[in-house]
Structures are given as C-alpha cells and as structure tokens.
Amino acid sequence: MAETNSVSDEVFNPPVSLQAQAHIKTMQEYEELYRESIDDPESFWKRIYETFYWKSPPTGPFLDYNFDIRKGPISIKWLAGAQTNICYNILDRNVENGLGDKVAFYWEGNNPGDDGKITYSELLVQVCKFANVLKDLGVGVGDRIAIYMPMIPELTVAMLACARIGAIHSIVFAGYSSESLADRILDAECCAIVTADGVWRGNKLLNLKNIVDRAMSLCEKRNHLVNKCVVVRHLGPKCENLVDGMISNNLCEESQLGKRPVHGFKISWQDGRDIWWHDLMGTVDSVCEPVWMDAEDPLFMLYTSGSTGIPKGVLHTTGGYMMYATATFKYTFDFHPDDIYWCTADIGWITGHTYVTYGPLANGATSVMFEGTPFYPDAGRFWAIVDKYKVNTFYTAPTAIRSLMKFGDEFVTKYSRSSLRILGTVGEPINPEAWLWYHRVVGNSTCAIVDTFWQTETGGHVITPLPGATPTKPGSATFPFFGILPTILSEEGHEIKGTGEGYLVFKQPWPGIMRTVHGDHERFETTYFKKFPGYYCTGDGAHRDKDGYLWITGRIDDLVNVSGHLLSTAEVESALIEHHSVAEAASVSHPHPIKGECIYCFVTLKEGHNLTDELVMELKNKVRHKIGPFAQPDFIQNAPALPKTRSGKIMRRILRKIARGDRDLGDTSTLADESVIDVLFKYRAQDA
Ligand code: PRX
C-alpha cells in the first residue's frame, strides 16, 4: 500500500463512462454554473425552486440576509412568504408523476434474509396515516416530536408525518444514553416521542423502550412531561399486527423473537402514555391534507455538540433545506432515475436526514435502508448488500472504510460489486491510504470517489467533488458546491489567497444553512459569526494547495471527531467529574488508526483514591452511560495536577502533546507551574 504523503498529490480523473452521461461533465461546466451560483444566487436557485410545488410564491425577496454581526442580528431568509410542504413535494408529487410503484426503500434488516421494501405510494399512505395519528394525539404546527428509533421504515414515516402537519422532528440517534436523550427532549420541550421496543445491532440487543422510559422519568424529575410515547413493535412477537405488510415480510412469517430467541426481553409500559404504533395505525384514515408551511418555518432540529454547554439544537427550515438537499443529492451523486443508492448513515445523524430521507426521496430515488452493522454476520456484509440490490452509489464514513480494510481484501473481492459507479465518504477527513483502498479494492479502480465535507449546520454538502467533472486527489474534498463561497482566514481574520492554511469560513449564505440554535439565537451568533464578523465560521481548519484544492485539516475548537461523530471535550469532562473519585478532569482529542480521533482523558483524583485498572474501567463506563457507547474514552491517565495558565485556564494544547508523547511543547512560559509537565509525562498511558 502506498505511503500516505507520497500519494496525496496523485490526481484521479472522473471515469470516462460516468462522465459521458453526467449532469456536469467538465470542470468548465462546473465553473460556469458555480460562478452564476455565487454572482447571481437567485437565478441559479430559481431553477431548483421551479422544480417544486409552491402553494404561493415568496412575498418578499428571494434571499434576504445579514451575515455581519456588526450590522445587526444574523438572519438568513430564503423565499420568505412562499408556502409549500416538503412531504407533499417528495411523496405526493412523485406519486402524481408516475413513481407510485417505484421502490422508495429496500429495507435490509440486521440479519441477512430479513428484508422488505416500500414503494412511494405505500410510503405516502403510511405517512398520511401517521400524520393523522399525530393529529389525533393533539400534535399541531410547531410542536416538537422526539424520535428515538432504529433504522426501520417507520423512522422515515414518523419524520415525514411530522413534516406533513408542520410539527418539528427532533431525532436523537438511538445509541445515545437516557441522559443525553432527556437533555435533548427537555431543551426542545418535546410533547411526544416515537420509539421502538428494541433492536438488534449485530449480536447486541438494545432495549430502546427502556432507555426511553428512563429518559422520560428524568424529564419528569425536571418538571417536563412527555405526554405520549408511540412504540413500534419491531421485535415481535405478533407480526400479524403490523399494518399493510410494510415491514420485513420475513419477520412476519416468524417473529424475530422466535428466530433468535431473546431470553427475557421485556419492556416497561405505562398505560395512557405508551401506545403501540400498530394499534394507532390500524384504524386511522389514510388521507391527510398537507399543512402549507412558510418556506422559513422550521422543518426539524438536530442536536450537535458545542464547545461548551449542552448540545445545540441546530434548526433547519423548510424551503431552503428542501432545495439544498435536492440539489446536492442530484449533483454530488450524479443521480439518475434508475440508480440504486445506499447511504449507510443512521438517520439519527444529519447525513441520514439529508441523504437517507430528504435528498433521495425528493429526487424520486430508490435507496437501500440498512438496520445492521458492517461487521455482522461478517466483514463482507456491505458488499453482500451491494450485490443483492445492485447498488450504484454507495455512501459511507472513513471509519467504516478503515475498519473494513483491517479485515483484508478477501471480504470485498469475493463479491462482484460490478454495479458500483460512485463511492462517497463523509463525516471526517479520509486519509489517502483509506481513500486509495476504497478506490482500488472496493471500486475496482473504476468508480468516482466523492469526499464530501459538510456539517449538521450546513444542511448538505458544501465542499465536494462532482463525480463526472472533478479530478480528485485522495484526501481532498476538492472544491465548493454551488452557492458556497469558501475563504481561508488567518488568526487575525485576513483572507489567505492562493496556497495556505487557516480557518475555513463561508462568505455568503446558501439555502441549506441552519437558521438558528433552537431557543438561543445569541448562541448561534456567538458560535458561528462572532470570531470573524461577516463570515460563517465552520470551526474547521483547511489548507488550499497550489491547484486550488481544499484539504480539511480538522476541528480547531475543543470538539473531537470520534468515528465521524462530534463530541465536546466538556461533555466528557462533566461526565467524569460526576464520579466520586474525580476532583478535576480534562480531555483532548488523540489520533486513532480506525476512529480517526479518540478521546484521551487526564483525571486528578481526590485524596485517598488511586487510578487502578478497575477505576479506569469505571470511569470509561461512566462516560459511556452518561453520553453513549460511542463516546467512551480510549485512554485515561492520572494527572496529579493539570497544566494551567496563571488565570487557571487548562492548556489543552500541552495536554494533546503529552498524550502523543511529543516533548516539543512550544511556548510554556504562560504556565503557572511548569513542573506538572514532567509528572504528566511520567503517567502517560503507555499504549497511546
Ligand atoms: O470536522 C468536520 C467533519 O465533521 C464535522 C461535522 O460533523 P457533523 O455536524 O456531525 O456532521 C457530520 C456529517 C456531515 C465537520 O465540522 N467532517 C465532515 N465531513 C468531513 C469532515 N472532515 C473532513 N472531511 C470531510 N469530508
């Protein structure tokens, strides 16, 4: 395998066969459209706007914004006053346009052989029914609904039902702990939650309902009542209760409980509050008029970690997000109607929102929805599924690629994969070695690779190659998507022209950008617009090379990107100091060969405590239980004291170096006590 650095300048041209039929075939075509999207956003986006149904047109300007905090509050409005409904556009209109019998999702369960499918018209019926269920439960425009579900079609049904009636969905990844779920329910003041009894992930059985129950009682203790909890019976035992044969036909012949015995699987239940999904869906009307929403009405919120405080409820609105999800899906994946597309992300993350649900459905695509993991029953599962459904476009995370590489090529090469055309990555920087493996082994050197850089906040891809046009370099996300004007700034806020490295910022709004942080517009302004007035600050660093290619260098704040999931070091620290033995804690990001980054913690223990192996385990578990399994630190080291400035601020820059065993600490003159450094090196985790 080639060395990381020596290969990074290699250029890969778009595959000729793909280029011939691509929407954008050359860099020249890209550049012309790109110029228009920057110089005249209205004329560019109007063409996308016109592909949708609008009950009424905008009442004011197409785009109205203030990106400069010095001139007043930050505000971004696309198409204000226009009335539409995203659910109507992505379901009813597709059905009206003859796609009713087209498969919207092939559903592939955790166990090979558990599968099902749902067409556009079936999906529409389910969505209308669940929208009526929500209305019967008293849910109306602007109400927040929490969703904590596995990757099953009902998750899409629930989110689109919210969108149909103007309720705001707040999906929480079903790997978060009860406490994290409770924090999010409370912040959003959700009146109802939709969940499932449980789910298998690989060999692990998760009791989702019990996690939700604990979250609801935590909310109750903090004076917030979740009135209704709708529960999908996913694990059986009585599959005949499921309506319309929509879900996993195999499961219905023989319950999963029967197939893979679940000893003592029980869920708790509170009559009046908890209701089975199938009981509600059995009798409800299957027609539901969409509620016409303003283009700037909220569509959903999704929580993402912040450097400080509780996670931020990133708020996306209706019209702009609809245009952006649709356009990025079409161009980045060069979508054509006969494509079979598969994004492996969980809908609980933004990637699943935009590129499992909204983007593909808006384009009338057929997608695969996968419940399981890449390693179950073995490390060939992804490629078995690619062959089973003849997937053309496959979209996953660098962490998944790196972990599959480790199992060897045979798990890949024993499958044909001949349907593959485009391979995408998202969520974290991809190292050139993993990029090349993806290209050569998975893609047989015939596929285009799209390394898509974006964020929960951006709503969709912002820096990405276009598969038919962009010559790619392994590890570079290449060039901006239409409407995105990136700039690299120095620490002092000067624009770096030509080659150079600095803060990645965007100079003007695009339709999919978040509009606010739920309930805290000031936090929105402070986080993204204060450091560099006039720019949206991504919080990532970037480097521009001599050919103008952008290379994302990673977070420049205190967020850690573990396997593509952002976590704040502050969240981890607050979990650690809840343990009775911990006086103080600091955590930093640390390189990890598979996860990209992992969490390395320094703990100062209270008098009388020693950092035994047992205590290390307890502390790791503490974080795991408080946040979720994916947040578990990899390393915990003893820190009799932490390196601080005279004003008491922890110097994380130094801690990162200590974790890496790097004695080149730079300027340490601002440290209150330099002697802590040697002590910390002494206790450094040996296997880090
Ligand atoms: O640091 C960047 C990294 O993931 C962050 C956004 O995380 P999140 O909001 O959870 O959304 C993830 C899915 C869009 C970014 O600030 N990131 C995302 N994609 C890439 C990336 N870093 C490098 N290259 C990427 N392609």
From TrEMBL:
A Pfam family hit: AMP-binding
Keywords: ATP-binding, Ligase, Nucleotide-binding
Keyword Electron transport annotated: no
EC main group: ligase
CDD domains in the cross-refs: ACS
A biological-process GO annotation: acetyl-CoA biosynthetic process from acetate
Residues covered by the AMP-dependent synthetase/ligase domain: 99-515
Keyword Nucleotide-binding: yes
Entry EC number(s): 6.2.1.1
Domain of life: Eukaryota
All residue ranges annotated as the Acetyl-coenzyme A synthetase N-terminal domain in the record: 30-89
Ranges of residues in domain AMP-binding enzyme C-terminal: 571-649
GO terms for MF: acetate-CoA ligase activity; AMP binding; ATP binding
Database matches in Gene3D superfamilies: 3.30.300.30, N-terminal domain of ligase-like
HAMAP family listed in its UniProt record: Ac_CoA_synth
Family: Belongs to the ATP-dependent AMP-binding enzyme family.
Record protein name field: acetate--CoA ligase
